[in-house]
Amino acid sequence: MPKNGARSVAKNPEPRTRRPEPSAQNLAPRTLLITGGAGFIGSNFIRYVLDSHKDWSVVNFDKLTYAGNLENLRDVENDSRYTFLKGDIADRAVVGAALSEHKPQCIVNFAAESHVDRSILDASPFIEANIRGTQVLLEAARAHPVDRFLQISTDEVYGALGATGVFTEESPLLPNSPYSASKAAAELLCRAYWKTYGIPVVITRSSNNYGPYQFPEKLIPLMIGNALRGEELPVYGAGKQVRDWIFVEDNCRGIERALLAGQLGEAYNIAGSHEMCNLDVVEAILRILRGLTGPTTKLPGVKFISDPRGAAHDFRYSLTTSKARADLAWEPFTSFEEGLTRTVTWYMGHREWVNAIVSGEYRAYYKMMYGESDTHSMPEKT
Ligand code: NAD
Ligand code: DAU
After folding, report:
1. Residues flanking ligand 1, CB < 6 Å
2. If you take atom 34 of ligand 2, which residue's CA is the nearest one?
3. What atom in ligand 1 is closest to the CA of residue 38?
4. Whether 51 is catalytic
5. Are residues 230 and 156 in the same domain?
6. Domain containing 303: what range?
7. 164 CB burial (10 A radius; 0-12, 13-18, 19+)
8. Banded pLDDT at 8 (limits 50, 70, 90)
């Protein structure tokens, strides 16, 4: 201990020189460390990568929180190019060991607490996973250099729009919920680690994803599940909030393009450019379900409930994607009608998947958010 009683300060770390930056042309990933790969978008991305790049391997690093589910990847678990590691991105030792053993060229950081409503109930897990976890990963990338660190962020970092306007990548970050604040903080750390240490960071900010394997707490799968169970459809407030919906496969292609062609230190908006208010989304689900199950099927109605998000409920998001279209040669392919039909059909055909993941934790959460609920199991037939 120094005489003045101050705690001794660790020796300054060795100054690290910037590595030469690999250009998009010579970036040749062989191994990707994908965090949060057992969640909704991460599992879709892993499947997409293994299908599209026969010479790439994937290490899926996931804590398996309530939202992480290895069932999402059952079809690839025996692929010799796929490895699963259970771990927390906020655990320095485990993250360091994973990088040291697998030596990935790229890190794609999906791992996060992702549900706005849960962040309003308790912000702490969001700070720990989304901010501290990202910082631990960035530090690990200093000690075990990588060619790319792709941070998966969200349009929610921009805050909310009124009835008009659009967010560009230059819009200020004005998050309104603990979730979006934690994602904005993670982005700012990425930017700082790029500027300070030359960590080769690229950021994607995507709009609302939907598709197979989404945890049923989110709007679209929650409404499909309730409708199939014949339970009322809980719309917050008057259901007028607007989201810009993107089919998850289109986002996965955008993430791949950002990984291969994104400029270091840059952020890219990725969106379906399909804006809809929540009530219209719910009505579209009911219409598609009626078409798939027959006009005589009895489906439940909407129940307008008091808005649990209050002032943190962002009214509207809208993104311009011209930067991703021009610089990444990316565009979305899936229309909302097609994507939603595929999604509803998937959930109808995967009732056992839903039944297996709606744990006691989720049932308790649902009851707290929405009041009385049934068992949350999907009926075998509608
Ligand atoms: P999700 O909740 O379905 O999955 C999150 C995954 O991260 C789970 O597998 C979970 O186990 C894992 N995880 C959580 N904390 C972890 C930790 N500390 N260490 C390791 N793993 C951990 O989320 P999602 O909807 O697939 O979102 C993935 C990412 O995309 C998130 O970063 C989210 O902020 C971002 N995003 C989501 C959307 C969307 O519409 N779903 C839109 C834009 C951005
Ligand atoms: O915009 C990107 C974000 O999209 C991601 O960063 C988040 O991780 C992801 O969860 C999603 O956030 P949202 O809050 O927009 O999605 P969610 O599905 O929770 O809600 C969509 C809208 O539907 C929102 O206005 C709230 C409303 N809603 C949601 C639920 C769960 C309801 O009206 N009823 C509900 O039961």
Report:
1. 35-36, 38-42, 62-65, 67-68, 88-90, 110-114, 129, 133, 152, 154, 183, 206, 208-209, 215
2. 235
3. 9
4. no
5. no
6. 219-241+277-315+336-370
7. exposed
8. very low
Spacing, Cα 121 to ligand 2 middle (Å)? 15
Length of the chain: 382
Q: Are residues 60 and 191 in the same domain?
A: yes
Q: Which residues contact 120 (CB under 8 A, 6 or more apart)?
A: 177, 178, 308, 309, 312
Judge if 201 and 153 occupy the same domain: yes
pLDDT, tens digit, 9 for 90 and up, residues 189-241: 999 999 999 999 999 999 999 999 999 999 999 999 999 989 999 999 999 99
Tokens of 341: 């039909």
Work out the percent of the chain whose per-residue pLDDT is above 70.
90
Distance 68 CA to ligand 1 centre (A): 8
CATH number for the domain harbouring residue 251: 3.40.50.720
The domain total for the chain is 2
**156 and 223 part of one domain:** no
Per the annotation, the verdict on 169 as an active-site residue is: no
Whole-angstrom Cα distance, residue 243 to residue 115?
Answer: 15
Would you say residue 88 lies in a domain? yes
In this structure, the number of other CB atoms found within 10 A of the CB of residue 368 comes to 12
**Residue 349 maps to which CATH number?**
3.90.25.10
Which atom from ligand 2 is nearest to the alpha carbon of 117? 19
